[in-house]
C-alpha cells in the first residue's frame, strides 16, 4: 500500500530500532525522532513528557544510534535533520502531519489540534520548513543531546 500524503515509506521500525516500551506488559509505543541538540526541539520533548500522561510516546534523538537508524530506514538524511519523524501503528509521519498527530494523540482538549489539518498541507509544511531552517538561530543549539532524568530514561531509545 502506498503511503498517504504526509507520510514516508515505512520500513519495519522494529528492525530499525527497538520501539517497545520497557515495561513487560506495555504495548508498543509511538516513537518521535527529534533533534537532540535543538533548544526548541528539546522544549517540545519536555512539553510532551509533561502532558503525555499515558506515556504513549517514546523518544529518539536524531544524533543517537536509534534515531539515525530510524531516519535512514525511512528515507530521511540523519546528517541533515530538517524534520521530525513520528512512527506510530506501523506508519511514519513527518513535518506538520507528525506534529498534529502527536498533539492530538495527547487526548482531552489537545485533540482540537487536529483542526490544524484543515489548513492546506503545503502551507503548513512551508511554515514548518521556515521554522526548521532557522531553529538554531532563533532558539539556540546545545553542544550535547538532552540527558533524560531517571524518571523518564525508559522513554528514550539509545
Q: In words, what does this structure look like?
A:
- With about 160 residues, the protein is of the alpha+beta class.
- It has one domain: Glutaredoxin (3-Layer(aba) Sandwich).
- Helix content is about 35%, strand content about 10%.
- The chain is built from five helices and four strands; from the N terminus they run αβαβαββαα.
- The chain has helices at about 15, 40-50, 65-75, 95-105, 120-140; strands at about 30-35, 55-60, 85-90, 90-95.
- The chain has a four-stranded mixed β-sheet with strand order 2-1-3-4.
- Strand 3 and strand 4 form a beta hairpin.
- The chain is globular, with a radius of gyration of 15 Å.
- Residues about 5-25 have low confidence and may be disordered.
- This is Thiol-disulfide oxidoreductase DCC family protein.
- Keywords: Membrane, Transmembrane, Transmembrane helix.
- Pfam families: DCC1-like.
- GO terms for molecular function: protein-disulfide reductase activity.
What's the arrangement of secondary structure elements?
Elements lengths: L12 H4 L13 E5 L4 H13 L5 E5 L3 H9 L11 E4 L2 E4 H10 L16 H19 L19
Parallel strand pairs: 1-2
Antiparallel strand pairs: 1-3, 3-4
> How would you spell out the order of helices and strands?
HEHEHEEHH
End-to-end distance = 31 Å
Largest sheet: 4 strands, mixed
Helix content range of the residues, please? 25-40%
* Oligomer kind: single chain
| Alpha plus pi helix count | 5
Query: Based on CA inertia axes, which overall geometry fits?
Result: globular
Strand order of the largest sheet: 2-1-3-4
* Secondary structural class: alpha+beta
Radius of gyration: 15 Å
Mean pLDDT: 81
Amino acid at each position: 500500500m502506498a503511503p498517504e500524503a504526509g507520510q514516508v515509506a515505512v520500513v519495519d521500525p522494529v528492525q530499525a530500532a527497538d520501539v517497545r516500551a520497557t515495561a513487560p506488559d506495555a504495548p508498543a509505543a509511538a516513537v518521535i525522532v527529534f533533534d537532540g541538540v535543538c533548544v526548541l526541539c528539546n522544549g517540545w520533548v519536555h512539553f510532551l513528557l509533561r502532558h503525555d500522561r499515558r506515556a504513549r510516546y517514546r523518544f529518539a534523538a536524531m544524533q543517537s544510534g536509534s534515531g539515525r537508524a530510524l531516519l535512514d530506514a525511512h528515507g530521511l538524511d540523519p546528517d541533515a535533520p530538517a524534520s521530525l519523524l513520528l512512527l506510530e501503528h506501523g506508519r511514519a509521519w513527518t513535518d506538520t502531519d507528525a506534529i498534529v498527530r502527536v498533539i492530538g494523540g495527547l487526548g482531552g482538549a489537545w485533540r482540537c489540534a487536529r483542526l490544524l489539518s484543515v489548513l492546506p498541507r503545503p502551507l503548513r509544511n512551508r511554515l514548518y520548513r521556515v521554522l526548521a531552517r532557522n531553529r538554531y538561530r532563533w532558539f539556540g543549539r546545545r553542544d550535547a543531546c538532552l540527558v533524560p532524568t531517571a524518571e523518564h530514561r525508559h522513554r528514550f531509545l539509545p
